[in-house]
Structures are given as C-alpha cells and as structure tokens.
Specification:
heterodimer, A: mainly beta, 4-stranded antiparallel β-sheet, 11 strands, B: mainly beta, 12 strands, globular
Chain lengths: 111, 117
C-alpha cells in the first residue's frame, strides 16, 4: 500500500464551487505539505503543518485553506474555486531532515 | 530565502549516452539538496539526497549527483540512459537552519528529459 494517498485523483468542478482534497499518510511523519504544480513552474508550496495545532501558510496560500484532522490526515479546501486554480496538487510528508515523500497527485480542473 | 535554478527546460539524449542535468542553488549556508523524478501522470519519486559528508552521492536507478559548494551546484548524472529515464526531473533545496527544510522544499522549475532511440 502507498505511504501517502490522495483522494480524489481527478476532479472536475465549476467556478464558485467548494471542493476538498484529502491526503492520508502511514509514514508516521508529523510534517505534512500541500503543493501545487503548474506546467513550467515547478512546485509551489500552499500550506504546511508540523502537527494538528501548527499550520502555516506557504508562498501561494490565497484562495486555499487546510485542516489537519489528525497526524495522518491533511485536507486542502478551495472555498470558491476559480479557473486559475486548475492544476496538479500534491500532498507530501517529511522526515526530520526534510526528505519529502509525495502522494500520487490530484488533477483538478475548474471550468 | 533559498532558490533553485535548472537552466535547461528540455534536454534530448540518445539512448545509451551519458546524461548531466544542471542545478544551481542559492542559499547562505550548506543546504540539504534533493533530486526528484516525475514520470508522466505520476507523483514525485526521490532519486537521491545530500545532507553532508561525501559530496558525491549515489541514488536509485543508476543516478549520481555531485555537490560543489564553490559553484553552488548539484548536478545529476547518469553514465548511460535508458528509454525509461524519459521524465521530468526536479532539483530541490531545503534550509538546514529550519530543521532540514521543515518549512518546505524550494523546487526548480524542472528539466524535461527526452530519450531518442
């Protein structure tokens, strides 16, 4: 079984809809991250969390929110989706030295 | 703040030829450095990492990388590429002073590797 799982894998939604992307991990890591990938831009950090009570904004947090429900679960929400949020979204965990382990990604399309 | 530059957006290599992908970073101290590979439709897989010590690090799939502090570089190499190496490659840096990239890694924009038969 995969160490980091993401659901859904693909999602098509309409402008203005609220959606949630979910991430679960079995690696036992405290640190979890959400990244966004756009073609030609690499990965950009949206939010990160060190534990359930410690959540931090990344470089592109506007328009997004997160929830850390447990050590193993970290969800990303788009309160009102817009077309320029169409992207590939990755969840990752990190060990104490910063090595990151990625989920398979969620491809989100906002029409 | 740290930054990463991958100068080559696309690289085309013949199968069996050697490969070098370039990565330059900007960081005030010794960074943690990583190379990841992303195959089409897949997530990112760790190829190798550098924390300290020997500046030549070995990774999976026959890849290696060399940390050169004087050049702020961490180039990825492979002596003989296979068609299955066609993918997107990302270099990333983490800051040691934040507990090893605790506030996330900074990624380059990636190099797309094409393998010619």
């Amino acid at each position: 079984d995969a160490d980091v799982t993401q659901t859904p894998r693909n999602r098509i939604t309409k402008t203005g809809k609220r959606i949630m992307l979910e991430c679960s991990q079995t690696k036992g890591h405290d640190r979890m991250y959400w990244y966004r990938q756009d073609p030609g831009l690499g990965l950009q950090l949206i939010y990160y969390s060190f534990d359930v009570k410690d959540i931090n904004k990344g470089e592109i947090s506007d328009g997004y929110s997160v929830s850390r429900q447990a050590q193993a679960k970290f969800s990303l929400s788009l309160e009102s989706a817009i077309p320029n949020q169409t992207a590939l979204y990755f969840c990752a965990t990190s060990d104490w030295r910063g090595t990151q382990y990625f989920g398979p990604g969620t491809r989100l399309t906002v029409l | 703040a740290q930054s990463v530059t991958q100068p080559d957006i696309h690289i085309t290599v013949s199968e069996g030829a050697s490969l070098e992908l370039r990565c330059n970073y900007s960081y005030g101290a010794t960074p943690y450095l990583f190379w990841y590979v992303q195959s089409p439709g897949q997530g990112l897989q760790l190829l190798l990492k550098y924390f300290s010590g020997d500046t030549l690090v070995q990774g999976i799939k026959g890849f290696e990388a060399e940390f050169k502090r004087s050049q702020s570089s961490f180039n990825l190499r492979k002596p003989s590429v296979h068609w299955s190496d066609a993918a997107e490659y990302f270099c990333a840096v983490g800051a040691q002073d934040t507990g090893g990239g605790a506030d996330g890694l900074t990624f380059g924009k990636g190099t797309h590797l094409i393998i010619q038969p």
